[in-house]
Amino acid sequence: MNPVVWLVLAVVVVAVALAAVWLSSRRRRSDELRDAFGPEYDRAVQEHGERGDAERDLAARAERVEQLHIRSLSEDESAHFAEAWRGVQAHFVDDPEVAIAQADELVAEVMQSRGYPMGNFEQRAADVSVDHPRVVENYRAAHAIASRSATGDDTPTEDLRQAMVHYRALFDELIGTPATPSPSRR
After folding, report:
1. What is the pLDDT of residue 115?
2. What pTM was estimated for this model as a whole?
3. CA pair distance 52, 45, nearest whole angstrom
4. Distance (Å, rounded) from C-alpha 61 to C-alpha 59?
5. pLDDT tens track of the chain, all 186 residues?
6. What pLDDT is stored for residue 12 in this prediction?
7. What proportions of the chain, in percent to the nearest 5, are helix, strand and coil?
8. Where are the domains of the chain?
9. How distant is the alpha carbon of residue 66 from its chain centre?
């Protein structure tokens, strides 16, 4: 066989092998992001409309949070915040709308104490999604109800109760979960 044919075949084989490695690497990265972000991965794909854009966004979030100094709360801080939460819950019976606003503020205070920046809500949710991807949607839902309630909208008590449940899910993770790197931050 002609040496040129051998050279062309070798180039084709190398190109196919490189393409296979690239696809495998991309698939592995997608699987890692899907595992790390759970339901937040699907939300990002739906929001961006394309998997590649969503994955770049999720990777950028993880990179951003990696640069932050997220820390665990001390036992005293956790106990203080837990006591504050009990007060918010007790207030819910008498004035659910005020209690929801207090829950929103308390969650923000815990986040700030842990080291999360307090920029706009969407940035806070994106940052929290890196370490707490399974409850960040709860945070979004609770915040939406709290915002609706704060505008004077006649928010049904059941919605306010649901917001309290959603805030509680994130709150529990924030005060009880050590700031160990999640799979997306390793």
Report:
1. 94
2. 0.76
3. 8
4. 5
5. 788 888 888 888 888 877 777 776 667 777 888 888 888 898 899 999 888 899 999 999 999 999 999 999 999 999 999 999 999 999 999 999 999 999 999 999 999 999 999 889 999 999 999 999 989 999 999 999 999 998 887 899 999 999 999 999 999 999 984 444 444 443
6. 83
7. 80, 0, 20
8. 1-186
9. 13
Cα–Cα distance measured from residue 24 to residue 77, given in angstroms and rounded to the nearest whole number: 45
Give 141-147's long-range contacts (Cβ < 8 A, gap of 24+).
141/166, 142/100, 142/103, 142/104, 142/166, 142/167, 142/170, 143/104, 145/100, 146/100, 146/101, 146/103, 146/104
Among all chains, which residue has been given the structure tokens 């990179």? 63
CA 20 to chain centre: 31
Residue 26 pLDDT: 67
Distance between CA atoms of residues 106 and 109, nearest Å: 5
DSSP 45: H
Backbone angles phi, psi at 177, to 5 degrees: -100, 120
| C-alpha span between 77 and 157 (Å, rounded) | 31
Q: Which amino acid is at 30?
A: S
Alpha-carbon 160 to chain mean position: 22
41 vs 182: CA distance, rounded Å = 14
